[in-house]
Amino acid sequence: MNSKLRNGRKLSREFKKNIRKGASILLSMAMVAGSVSLSDVSAVTVSAAEKSTAVNAATGSYVMGKDGKINSSTVFDTKTGYGFSDFEYPDAAKDWVGAVYYPREERVTTGKASYVSDGEGYLAIESKVWTETEKTGYGTFTYENTSTLDFALDNADYKISVELVNPTDKELTVSLEAENITKASGVKVAAGKTVTQDITACLVDGVLNIKFLETSASATSESDAAVGKVYVSKVSISKAAEKTAGEKPTIFIASDSTVQTYESNYYPQTGWGQTLHNFFGDFVEERECKDCEYSQAQTYETVNAIVENRAIGGRSSKSFIEEGKFDDLLEDVKPGDYVLVQWGHNDATTSRPNRYVSPEDFGYWMQYYVDGVTQRGATPILVTPVARYSYTTNEDGTLKSFVGNFEKYGDVMRKMAKEQNIPIVDLTARSTALCNEFGIEGAKSLFLMVEAGDYPEGAYAGGANDSTHL
After folding, report:
1. Which candidate in 179, 319, 431, 469 is catalytic?
2. What DSSP element (H or E) covers 181?
């Protein structure tokens, strides 16, 4: 247990009272039970029509090479359910258009293996990898031209074993991706040697895509990127064991800095995710989330439920998925669990291109959360963005109303909830109502607004005037 992260248990009486009142608006749904029937999200590299007619590939081992089950002529086909497709970024980024940055767009050619060649007992798979940073320096994007190995499979969790060989006289450095998420990096394959690398993948879109990338060198432009080769002799795929419901439900949270757990040095800053356990019976313990790669992920166990706060600052609905954090969550979610999903704050930040999601694209990413959770027998709960300290006034300067700053994103969630019968907590509406009840001055006590010297030890000794964080 990390004692530094127990500030959820060290709140002052007044502050805790306000936080508990604020958090209680979230818990009005209590525990939402029942199943939700949803359609699958469309496949990423195979069209919806192809996906619907594709035969699922068999799990097991696939020997690679000229005489293997998979060779350079094995392109993805709906009749077999497996094979290669080309994945490329041929056109330059559109750059900034107004306030929005447009990176390169991927082009996927299903049923093509331009980067694959046969060897004796292996396939040589070429790749060209580079990064590009836009002019403000806040957005860095990684691009890869290669062929992906695709398998049409049931949406589930899979264990993948990749056997790498090196017929050259130089050491190779390999990265493996599944579903565009880096699963293994810096894998060294010495000259003349064989290395087996195991990874996992949580499939949501019906087609598993695997990339084999040679990453010995780094490049910051396409023109500087060298063509590397990875040599693969075998790929084995097995379905992970089915998970069963726990003795008590786990409530996972996928969200941002308004929700995450903070170390005691940041007190009184408090994400609502670190106080949620107060509503589920007597406290048992706090511990770091198992198998999470970031310290903000904390587990709070009570006698009635377990709250697993996976929220982390600076992320959006898109970047939380692209960084593999949602994939890690899906590995742990079980039938009977719940997943609270609050996004919108960072999705709306156009000045941070890696996290920005337009309101028009927001539904695609939110659907990915809903599908991933329901496919594993758990219940997704959409949560509209908690309000900021933002309000309008009457002509005489008195409070008219606190307002939500991310209503276009909240509207997407409300529409999804209504059309698909997904549980939703309209935290925007309820938190603005709470702020209205507190008034212009009183609502400051709900936010990170403190004077210099109020908390002489820690990050806010000099005070803070933060209209977003609690």
Report:
1. 469
2. strand 181-189
Catalytic-residue membership of 72: no
What mean pLDDT do residues 100-108 have?
97
Question: Catalytic site residue 451?
Answer: yes
| CA separation, residue 217 to residues 36, 128, 168, 226 (Å) | 46, 10, 16, 8
Catalytic residue among 175, 257, 316, 317: 257
Judge whether residue 289 has pLDDT over 90.
Answer: yes
Give the predicted TM-score (pTM) of the model: 0.89
Q: CA quadruple 328, 330, 335, 341: dihedral positive or negative?
A: positive
Q: Looking at residue 291, what is its pLDDT?
A: 83
Instruction: Work out the pLDDT band at 54, boundaries 50, 70, 90.
Output: low
Which runs of E-coded beta strand occur in 240-383? 250-254, 283-288, 298-302, 306-309, 338-342, 379-383
Contact (Cβ atoms closer than 8 angstroms) between residue 132 and residue 220: yes
Amino acid identity of residue 417, one-letter, is: A
The pairing of strands 379-383 and 338-342 is: parallel
Say if CB 176 and CB 125 are below 8 A apart.
no
